[in-house]
Write a structure and sequence with these properties.
This protein is α/β, with parallel strands linked by helices and 256 residues long. It has a single domain (4-255), classed as TIM Barrel, CATH 3.20.20.70. 43% of the residues lie in helices and 17% in strands. It has ten helices and ten strands. Helix 1 packs antiparallel against helix 2 (14-26) and helix 5 runs parallel beside helix 6 (124-134). The longest helix has 21 residues, at 235-255. Bound molecules: 5-bromo-uridine-5'-monophosphate (5BU). Residues 33, 35, 59, 88, 144, 147-148, 177, 193-194, 206, 224-228 line the site of 5-bromo-uridine-5'-monophosphate. Residues 29-242 form the Orotidine 5'-phosphate decarboxylase domain. Its EC number is 4.1.1.23. It is an enzyme of class 4 (lyase). InterPro entries: Aldolase_TIM (IPR013785), OMPdecase (IPR014732), OMPdecase_AS (IPR018089), OMPdeCOase_dom (IPR001754), RibuloseP-bd_barrel (IPR011060).
Length: 256
């Protein structure tokens, strides 16, 4: 298999290229899921953990005290620590609607999120709608081909059709949210949520896999970690532990 750097060279989408490049340069395949509802705590966490991550994932609509400065401050941290911003918006409507949800409203996601994601459920028109807004800005889309919680419906034929849909719009679709590697086309990045240093569950359906299982055994590229980091006694140290576990698993996969 190819290194992240070799895969960067294959990519034409600028966000995919930037992602693989910074993963290689900073030796990290860790994405922080910064699911914090207070702005100052959110920014403090991102600043503390920023040096260990390649991507910070947001749910901007869960923040109680969001204001326009939130994004400016997040962008400053993204420059300071050199990470990409991924808004986990999970668009799931028709093309004309998702286009406006992406561009307009109070969050103007297209202006600041390098990466967004979408369900494949509404079909290719939704991807086209998002692409009308994001492609010329150099943004990238992850399609949700699989989900982490128990009993979810993104399985088998749904997953296969999602991958096919992504391949058909590979100028904008940079990869997949999945539990495993789904295609040998190495331009696509696979990002996996539901990761903790110890496997388990959260009581609301979430299922946790370990970094080694996700990256080495199942061939994914990026581990997405939320509570494993921000609920730790020392989130900075926890992020370093996840970063090391993710990177060791990647190096072991390269050797295998
Ligand atoms: P956790 O605290 O590490 O369990 O958070 C996982 C994050 O990933 C959280 O923001 C979810 O919304 C997100 N997620 C997920 O857990 N599973 C999925 O299948 C998808 C997203 Br898609």
């Amino acid at each position: 298999m190819k290194t992240y750097a070799e895969r960067a060279a294959l990519c034409t989408n600028p966000t995919a290229k930037a992602l693989f490049t910074l993963m290689e340069e900073q030796q990290t395949n860790l994405c922080l899921s910064a699911d914090i509802i207070e702005k100052e705590k959110f920014l403090a966490l991102v600043d503390a953990v920023g040096p260990s991550v390649c991507v910070v994932k947001t749910h901007i609509d869960m923040m109680d005290d969001f204001d326009t400065t939130t994004i400016v401050q997040l962008q400053r941290l993204a420059e300071k620590h050199a990470f990409l911003i991924f808004e986990d918006r999970k668009f799931a409507d028709i093309g004309n609607t998702v286009k406006h949800q992406y561009q307009n409203g109070m969050y103007n996601i297209a202006d600041w999120a390098h990466i967004i994601n979408a369900h494949a459920l509404p079909g290719p028109g939704a991807i086209e709608g998002l692409k009308e807004v994001g492609l010329h800005k150099g943004r990238g889309l992850l399609l949700i081909a699989q989900m982490s919680p128990v009993g979810n419906l993104a399985t088998d034929g749904y997953t296969d059709k999602t991958v096919q849909m992504g391949k058909e719009q590979s100028d904008f679709v940079i990869g997949f949210i999945s539990n495993e590697k789904l295609t040998d086309d190495e331009r696509f990045v696979h990002m996996t949520p539901g990761v903790k240093l110890e496997a388990g569950a959260d009581g609301l359906g979430q299922v946790y896999k370990t970094p080694a299982s996700v990256i080495k055994d199942h061939g994914s590229d990026v581990i997405i970690v939320g509570r494993g980091i921000y609920e730790a006694d020392n989130p900075t140290q926890a992020a370093i532990a996840y970063r090391d576990a993710g990177w060791d698993a990647y190096r072991a996969r390269l050797k295998a």
